[in-house]
Design a protein that fits this description.
By secondary structure, the protein is mainly α. Helices cover 69% and strands 0% of the residues.
């Protein structure tokens, strides 16, 4: 609280009160002009229990290429993002701890409807609208349905990829893999993004992880044969450049 050192007389005291009232009236409207982000809320939902996740949550089938490679190393950013995601998911689960099961299922059904809407928008080429639908679905989908949320993150990554939001797409792929480590589609999508942004070592690790889970994935097998040579050539080139300085 502000101290009024010269408020020994009633006139000074009243003067300071007027100043305080004036400052409050000036700051009030500024706060009102910046309302909370409407996307942060969870709208109510309705409906009966949906089908299991495997039946009602399907990923977008396409793989996409980044048009402009990003060469900077963002390993620290990805580590920070991963920790933040874990905190966010844990926080959401804590908030939902006392939520009735019926309400969870209602929210799940509404998030499924938004996901399907996003898929249709994606097919039409409305990638910005699809991204928005997936984001809204993530706001509604309870954190306890981790595989459902993994699909939503992966689908949103696909929509972001089409808009050249490369790093944001990588972040969403990472969130999907954290929620479902066996999610091959998300691993493949992230590996492709890593490769397109010249992060060959990270791409190779993801392709290897895919092969460990499913040795029949041709894309991963081909990449595991091709990338080691590319990595070696890159390292040799860097070594020569360093020696030439």
């Amino acid at each position: 609280m502000e101290e009024f050192k010269d408020a020994s007389s009633p006139e000074n005291f009243l003067h300071h009160l007027k100043l305080s009232d004036q400052e409050s009236s000036e700051t009030g409207p500024k706060d009102a002009q910046n309302p909370p982000d409407p996307d942060c809320g969870c709208p109510p939902s309705s409906g009966r229990d949906p089908a299991p996740a495997e039946e009602c949550f399907h990923d977008c089938p396409d793989f996409f290429e980044a048009k402009e490679p990003v060469l900077d190393d963002v390993q620290d950013d990805e580590t920070s993002s991963r920790k933040q995601t874990e905190l966010d998911e844990e926080y959401l689960r804590e908030l939902e701890k006392d939520m009735p099961e019926e309400e969870k299922q209602k929210r799940r059904k509404e998030s499924t409807a938004l996901k399907e809407k996003g898929n249709e928008q994606f097919k039409k080429g409305d990638y910005g609208e699809a991204e928005d639908s997936y984001s809204r679905a993530l706001q509604i989908c309870p954190a306890c349905f981790q595989k459902d949320r993994a699909v939503l993150f992966s689908n949103r990554a696909a929509a972001k990829m089409k808009q050249d939001k490369t790093e944001a797409a990588l972040s969403d792929c990472t969130k999907a893999v954290e929620l479902d480590p066996n999610y091959i589609r998300a691993l493949l999508r992230r590996a492709e993004l890593y490769e397109k942004t010249e992060k060959l070592d990270e791409a190779l690790e993801d392709y290897k992880a895919v092969l460990e889970k499913d040795p029949a994935v041709h894309q991963a097998r081909e990449a595991c044969l091709r990338l080691p040579r590319q990595i070696e050539e890159r390292n040799e080139k860097l070594k020569k450049e360093m020696l030439g300085k």
